[in-house]
Q: What sequence folds into this?
């Protein structure tokens, strides 16, 4: 299936905490192998994992905030796959403040621009939702990114088999008046040689 569509995609930034511990010593007469607690390498996460962390920060900024968009981003060395990403960006709008704020969640730091965790960028003026870019309720965000990806990839299976080297280059969630709730947008390739699929974030069903 080939299609063209536009969904809103916006930008954001990140915050981090780190911790360390010193080594322990053992008796020279009865040495045991030193136990080193290895730190697990960072792995990509689903949108909901990142969303709820960003949601808490957004609530602190504006209690009346509403989600606008969520979009998968990449971090060098961490492969986005199966509906999971190393970094997610989200926008939240506040009707009372008439502003929207940008947030990101990253599983690892990538200096100087990306730090691990959640960070909010500065808020900017917002005129409110439009027909092309609506706010949605968090309760409408039911289907996580990994489940939505399975549905989209299933629809794209024949095309993906014929084009194994063409990557997924659009992976975002947003709402518009064309649909009753927020939808996931997946696009492999481009308009000339690509596959586009929408999946309802509320029902989990593929949309035409």
A:
């Amino acid at each position: 299936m080939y299609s063209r569509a536009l969904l809103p995609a916006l930008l954001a930034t990140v915050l981090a905490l780190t911790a360390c511990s010193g080594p322990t010593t053992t008796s020279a007469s009865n040495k045991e192998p030193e136990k080193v607690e290895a730190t697990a390498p960072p792995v990509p996460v689903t949108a909901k994992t990142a969303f709820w962390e960003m949601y808490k920060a957004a609530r602190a900024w504006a209690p009346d905030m509403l989600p606008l968009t969520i979009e998968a981003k990449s971090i060098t060395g961490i492969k986005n796959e199966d509906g999971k990403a190393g970094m997610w960006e989200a926008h939240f709008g506040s009707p009372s403040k008439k502003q929207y704020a940008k947030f990101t969640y990253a599983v690892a730091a990538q200096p100087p621009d990306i730090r691990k965790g959640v960070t909010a960028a500065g808020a900017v003026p917002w005129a409110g939702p439009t027909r092309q870019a609506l706010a949605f309720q968090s309760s409408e965000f039911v289907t996580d990114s990994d489940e939505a990806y399975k549905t989209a990839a299933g629809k794209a299976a024949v095309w993906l088999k014929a084009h194994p080297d063409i990557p997924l280059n659009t992976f975002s969630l947003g709402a518009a008046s064309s649909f009753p709730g927020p939808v996931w947008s997946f696009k492999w390739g481009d308009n000339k040689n690509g596959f586009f699929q929408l999946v309802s974030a509320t029902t989990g069903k593929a949309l035409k």
The CA atoms of residues 80 and 187 lie 14 Å apart. The longest strand covers residues 66-73.
